[in-house]
Amino acid sequence: MEAKKKDITKKDLLKKLPWLLLIPLGFILPRLAASSPWSVEHMYSRGAYPVIIGTISAVTGLFGFSVAEMFVCTVILCVLFLLIQNTVRLAAKRQSATSFISFVLSLCIFAGAMLNLFYVAWGFNYSRPTLYQLMELEVKQRPDSELQQLCFTLADRAAKLRSAVPEDENGVFYIADYREYFDKIPAAYEKLGEKYDIFSSPAAVAKGVAASEGMSWAGISGIYMPYTAEPNVNVHQPSLLIPSSAAHETAHYLGFAREDEANFIAYLACTYSDDPAVEYSGVMLALINCANKLYRSDANKFAPLREMYSDAMIRDLSAYNAYWDNYEGEVQEAVDSLNDNYLKFNQQQDGVKSYGMMVDLMLAYYANIQA
Known about the structure:
Layout: H1 2-16, H2 22-34, H3 37-60, H4 67-91, H5 97-121, H6 131-134, H7 144-162, H8 178-182, H9 185-195, E1 207-208, H10 212-217, E2 222-225, E3 230-233, H11 242-253, H12 259-271, H13 276-297, H14 299-306, H15 311-325, H16 330-345, H17 358-370
Parallel strand pairs: 1-3
Antiparallel strand pairs: 2-3
């Protein structure tokens, strides 16, 4: 009987082996999709994807908390528990090596299934045409004078908006209830969609993450979870970019996977909001990115821009920078490295630098509306 039991286990191993093909399939499919972006656009991004997220979001949207956070924690704890349990059993000779190999194969199959599900549920959006193609924007090298003028425009708008937003006892921009502002993001996207059809799909309401401070240690302001179709936001960070972070993750929800595009879309959406605090957050997101690029390109052109910042804007930026300075360290560096590799794997060859490429889209957009 013992020999028979061993033979069955070996047969089980052989039955599992074909399922390991899910892993290479998860690497091949996105490469194939990248070779035909317009097919992805029509068949997936504007075809299957809205149905997929609408179905998933209809379920996860019933919960006021982040289902994604619970999902991630559950998966990690279950995998760790099973790994420790099977390792201990193997070491204590209460489990055969063949049985342990079967367990390892099951983990690999699970990983392969999750990889493919990632692309089916959202990841194929990395392969759709670029936003500048979809919006017919001309992205090209532009003189610093154009960037400086754009920064002047943003700084002037931010200074005007700043006088109409709430602040704390230290005179720093502050929103007491982030949920109130998250509820306003879909309405902003609805107005944006009236202007640009590609943003017209219904948007989900972003959710705050309970373990937000942990995200700060990792240097993360927000994350979109394809498996639960939820935009998740770090609500422990300063209020300055909380609304625009929600708009950024909502852009991902709407199928815009690239980081520079999500940043640019977040700015656009916030400017279509009726709430000055939401618009201020979006304008400051754009100003921070544009001003940083201007400073790196020509510090002399940055000096007159800095003089346009109101005292209140300076307080907001100082509080924002001081907060993130406290969380710099090895954890953040490790996560940045991981994120860099993830972005490069998904055809964003500039990796984490792609976040700053929002400026190219900003310049192209302003050149287009001024033409």
